[in-house]
Amino acid sequence: MQRFEVMAWQQYDMLLPITGTDADVISAAGVKTISVVAPYGFEAKNSLPGLQGKWEAYHIGAMDWVPNAEAINWFLHDIWPAIHAAVPDFRFSFAGRYMPDSFKNMQIEGVTCAGEVPDADAFIADKKILIVPLKAGGGIRIKILEAMAAAKIVISTDTGMQGIEAEAGTHYLAANKAEDFVKAIKWCLDNKAKAEQISINAFSLIRSKYEQGAIMQKVIEGIERLEH
């Protein structure tokens, strides 16, 4: 597969990897084809979305993708009990397509399984914190970018943030162990103004790095370089 990929990359005039990590892989393989990083883009909002919403957490993702299901299973069994013990009133909701009955039938205090929701934007609108406990997977998490564009506070593992040009502590809160998630949530609840500033920083990052017009301008400039 690797040999085929290298051969295929060399047959095109320009490549459009969606992350800088992917561009580095192409370059490390010795491929000389021009690469322009073109991540998933958003239409830039003129103003910061309202920071309204409840200090609750959510996760949304298709549960037929094994890393998502494994992540939620880890969060519910190994992380949530400590969170609930530390902040009993805190709430967590999760949703997604192909939700298994094992999740739907769980009875965990403070946790709501919404199953497949008709409107993802409506589901996340009244919640401030996105939880991303991924331990495996590649590519880029569109749901994280969407959360940042909606000025949500993101708490994620390093794996979850893979491919996203964000800085821990500035644009999101990093959590790779169970105790990290507990500390991050408690910090948000104890430092609400600072936590909201992180969500504002994340929104600004989306505007500067993931705005559709800016991305397409980079692609156009790459094409113009080919013509010369």
SSE topology sketch:
Blueprint: H1 2-9, E1 14-15, H2 20-28, E2 34-35, E3 54-60, H3 66-86, E4 92-95, H4 101-104, E5 111-115, H5 120-125, E6 127-132, H6 142-149, E7 153-156, E8 173-174, H7 178-190, H8 192-209, H9 212-227
Parallel strand pairs: 1-2, 3-4, 3-6, 4-5, 6-7, 7-8
Strand order of the largest sheet: 5-4-3-6-7-8
Rg calculated over all Cα atoms: 19 Å
Number of strands: 8
CATH level 3 topology of the largest domain = Rossmann fold
As a percent range, the share of strand residues is 5-15%
CATH architecture of the largest domain: 3-Layer(aba) Sandwich
Count of discrete alpha- or pi-helical segments spanning 4 or more residues: 9
CATH class of the largest domain: Alpha Beta
General shape: globular
**How many structural domains does the protein architecture include?**
2
Description:
With 228 residues, the protein is of the alpha/beta class. The chain has 2 domains: 2-41 and 211-227, no CATH class; 54-209, Rossmann fold (3-Layer(aba) Sandwich), CATH 3.40.50. It contains 9 helices and 8 strands. The chain has helices at 2-9, 20-28, 66-86, 101-104, 120-125, 142-149, 178-190, 192-209, 212-227, and strands at 14-15, 34-35, 54-60, 92-95, 111-115, 127-132, 153-156, 173-174. The strands form 2 sheets. Strands 5-4-3-6-7-8 form a 6-stranded parallel β-sheet, with helices on both faces. Strands 1-2 form a two-stranded parallel ribbon. Strand 4, helix 4 (101-104) and strand 5 (111-115) form a beta-alpha-beta unit. Helix 3 (66-86) crosses helix 7 (178-190) and helix 7 crosses helix 8 (192-209). The longest helix has 21 residues, at 66-86. The radius of gyration is 19 Å and the shape is globular. The mean pLDDT is 92.
